């Protein structure tokens, strides 16, 4: 990385971070180290998309509603992430995007929101997670077009709308960042069960925080939790499973 360049500006630097810290709300003083680097040379295996393609074909034949799991509460079988279909989280948060517009969960109706809490001066887990999301979106091909990454800052004191916008779009132009007052951020974090705290670092500070990504289906139902330890390919496969819900 060039001297003087912002830590997050060179996206390629982040796909090589081997160590990530995932802070669990129930154990805020314990860090879990995991090898969660995003593989840049992983082959795009056709088996990753077989299930999605079969369901799409059935839909064209008029069988999707019967066999594709298109009722309002289908059971989805995830291979890697945590099934959160029985959880009610994040339904009432209200924040602003970098254009100053008020955003709620319903703002993403018709899309598949992938919500992650972090901060732009995060040294490893945040940029690695965003780089992984960008790679997963590419692996999903056209299906990735409905995936909407939503990055919510936990550091509103330093993360201005301008900084947030440049930060998330360095990973993918479609990624969206949200901010609010410290009080609004605290409310949103509580809705998702997010743990975070300031850690003094000389004359400044850093943050420790939960590193889970929360995935909603296109109707706004929480479906999936993606841990920091998963690869882009593993995330892509589970995200395609979420898309089986019509």
Structural commentary:
The protein has 246 residues and is of the alpha+beta class. It has one domain: Glutaredoxin (3-Layer(aba) Sandwich), CATH 3.40.30. The chain contains six helices and twelve strands. The chain has an eight-stranded mixed beta sheet with strand order 3-12-11-6-7-8-4-5. Helix 4 links the parallel strand 7 and strand 8. Helix 3 packs across helix 6. It starts with 18 loop residues before the first strand and ends with a helix.
Q: By helix and strand content, what is the structural category?
A: alpha+beta
Count of individual domains: 1
* SSE string, helices as H and strands as E: EEHHEEEEHEHEHEEEEH
Radius of gyration: 18 Å
Question: Beta-strand percentage?
Answer: 15-25%
Query: Order of strands across the biggest sheet?
Result: 3-12-11-6-7-8-4-5
Q: What is the CATH architecture term?
A: 3-Layer(aba) Sandwich
Query: How many beta-strand segments?
Result: 12
Round the mean pLDDT to the nearest integer and report it. Answer: 80
Q: DSSP helix count?
A: 6
Spatial shape = globular
Tell me the name of the CATH class: Alpha Beta
Distance between the termini: 43 Å
Please estimate the helix content: 10-25%
Looking at CATH, which topology would you report? Glutaredoxin
Tell me about the biggest sheet? 8 strands, mixed
Mind telling me the CATH superfamily name? Glutaredoxin
């Amino acid at each position: 990385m060039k001297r003087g360049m912002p830590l997050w500006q060179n996206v390629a630097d982040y796909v090589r971070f081997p160590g990530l810290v995932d802070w669990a709300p129930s154990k805020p003083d314990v860090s879990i180290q995991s090898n969660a680097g995003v593989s840049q040379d992983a082959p795009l295996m056709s088996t990753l998309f077989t299930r999605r393609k079969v369901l799409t074909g059935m839909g064209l034949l008029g069988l999707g509603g019967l066999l594709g799991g298109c009722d309002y509460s289908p059971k989805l079988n995830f291979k890697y992430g945590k099934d959160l279909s029985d959880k009610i989280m994040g339904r009432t948060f209200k924040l602003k995007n970098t254009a100053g517009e008020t955003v709620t969960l319903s703002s993403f109706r018709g899309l598949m929101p992938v919500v992650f809490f972090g901060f732009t001066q995060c040294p490893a887990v945040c940029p690695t997670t965003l780089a992984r999301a960008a790679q997963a979106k590419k692996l999903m091909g056209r299906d990735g077009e409905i995936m909407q990454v939503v990055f919510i800052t936990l550091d509103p004191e330093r993360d201005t709308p301008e900084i947030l916008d440049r930060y998330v779009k360095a990973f993918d132009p479609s990624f969206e960042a949200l901010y609010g007052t410290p009080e609004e951020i605290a409310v949103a974090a509580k809705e998702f069960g997010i743990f975070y705290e300031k850690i003094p670092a000389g004359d400044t500070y850093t943050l420790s925080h939960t590193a889970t990504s929360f995935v909603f289906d296109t109707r706004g139902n929480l479906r999936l939790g993606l841990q920091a330890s998963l690869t882009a390919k593993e995330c892509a496969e589970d995200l395609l499973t979420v898309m089986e819900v019509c």
